[in-house]
Amino acid sequence: MKSPPLLVAALVACIIVLGFNYWIASSRSMDLQGRVMDLEGKVRRAAAERGAVELKKNEFQGELEKQRQQIDKIQSLHSFQMENANRVHQEEKAMLMSNITVNDRLIQSLREHLKELQMEYGKLQMDVYWFQKNQTNLQRKFSYDLSQCINQMKELKEQCEERIDELTKKSSDVPQIKENKDFPEESR
Asked: Is 4 left (phi over 0), alpha (psi -120 to 50) or beta?
C-alpha cells in the first residue's frame, strides 16, 4: 500500500512540529527548575539570616539580664550601705545623748559625717539613675533592632511569596500557550 506523497509530507511536518514543541517544553522546564533551585537557595539564606537574628536576640536578652542583675546588686549594696549608715548614726546619736555636755564637738563631726553620707547617697542615687537610663536605652535599641529584623524578614517573605506566585503563574501559563499554538495549526 503506497501512501500519497502529501500524506507522508503532512506526517513528517507533524513529527517536526511535535519535536520542536517537545524541545521548547523541555528547555522551559529546565529554566523553571533552575529558578526553583535559585529560590530554594534564597530561602535557605533567609533561614540562615533568621538564625543569626535569633542569636543576636538571645545575646541582647543576655546583656539585658546582666544589666538587670547589676542594677539589683547596686540597689542591694545601696540599701545595705544605707542600713549600715543609719545604724552607725543611731549608735553615735545614742552615745551623744548620754554625754551631751562632754561631746559637743563630736556632735559637730557627726553632722559633717551625715552630710558626707548624704552626698554619698546622692552619688549612689545618680549611679542608679544612670544604670536605669542605660537599661532603658538598651531596651529601646533591642526593640528597634528586633523590629528592623522582623521587618526585613517580612520583606524577604513577601519577596519570596511574590516570586513563587510569579513562577506558579508562569508555570500555569505555559500549557495555555502550547494549546494556543496548537489551535491555529489545527485550523489550518
From this structure: beta
Q: Which residue has the cell 517536526?
A: 16
- Higher-scoring residue by pLDDT: 187, 91: 91
Q: Say if residues 183 and 66 touch (Cβ distance below 8 Å).
A: no
Specify whether the CB–CB gap between 60 and 142 falls below 8 A.
yes
115's grid cell: 552630710
Q: Is 2 left (phi over 0), alpha (psi -120 to 50) or beta?
A: beta
All residues at 6 or more sequence positions from 135 whose CB lies less than 8 Å from its CB, including other chains: 64, 67, 68, 71
Looking up cell 542594677 gives 71
pTM for this model (two decimals): 0.30
Q: Quick check: 145 and 58 in contact, CB under 8 A?
A: no
